[in-house]
Design brief:
By secondary structure, the chain is mostly helical. The chain contains twelve helices and five strands. The chain has one domain: Rhodopsin 7-helix transmembrane proteins (Rhopdopsin 7-helix transmembrane proteins, Up-down Bundle), CATH 1.20.1070.10. The strands form two sheets. It has a three-stranded mixed beta sheet. It starts with a helix and ends with a helix.
Length: 316
Amino acid sequence: MASINMSYLDPTTVMLIGIPGLEHVQFWIGFSFFVVCVVAFLGNIILLIIIPAERSLHQPMYIFLAVLAATDIGLCVAIAPKMLAIFWFGSRSMAFDACLAQLFFIHSLQGMESGILLAMAFDRYVAICDPLRHTSILTPFILVTLVLVVAIRAMVLVGILPVLIKRLHFFHSIVIAHSYCEHMAVVKLAAEDIRVNKTCGLLVGFTILGFDMIFIIISYILIFQAVFRLHQKEARLKAFNTCTAHIFVFLEFYILAFFSFFSHRFGHVAPPTHILLSTIYLLVPPALNPIVYGVKNKVIRKRVAQIFFLNCQSRQ
């Protein structure tokens, strides 16, 4: 009973402290994350302008890329404002329900990003292994269906997590040692049995990230088998070249995702290191994705150059 008397009953607010142990320098750390967010916003907004406007990019790969860009912008919007308010203005207080809403949007958008990467891998598989049927398989209806399935899957599965947290009433603390509301960081505040929350978090993570990663790897095993069966070296190089951007984005996303996921549950990583890496995992891929695809695609490079060239001319 003494432990219950010392706990918080149905708290209405929580406190986000940012990066524990680095409070004295997180003001300056905020500027680096601000630059990353600006790059992510500009890069993804440019993609969302160029892809609908350029008819040659009205292909499944670039339609998925546009959805990925919208998802990346959503991630930055969900994380950056509160995080920078903590770093720069010391605005640590947050309504408990707002914290759960941020948790839902962050993890849902992560799940959507993973699903879109799987859809892009499927597109590459069909384009290389069955090119003659590419347009007949990936029709506009199929593309819309895939995007809707990815979005609904992420929202339904992740939606379970805040619902399970709401069933908890006693908390031993309201101070979250993080710069945003991450699922396990919130769950660990509870003074009750959280085994169901932990198990559900693992199941949701593996159902989304694990499932997608396995099928992406299978897709690329089949792609590489098909490519190595090509007799001409130029044809093999061309086929590989169409996949390099997606492979890079896939690796950066899943390596950082699984490091963050497992270190928070099973690892002994120092809290400042874990929080910095988990924030990098959420904010750096949205900044890198438009750069990677922009560098690889001549049409996107040309249109970006035209945008900046026209801006320079108008100023003159």
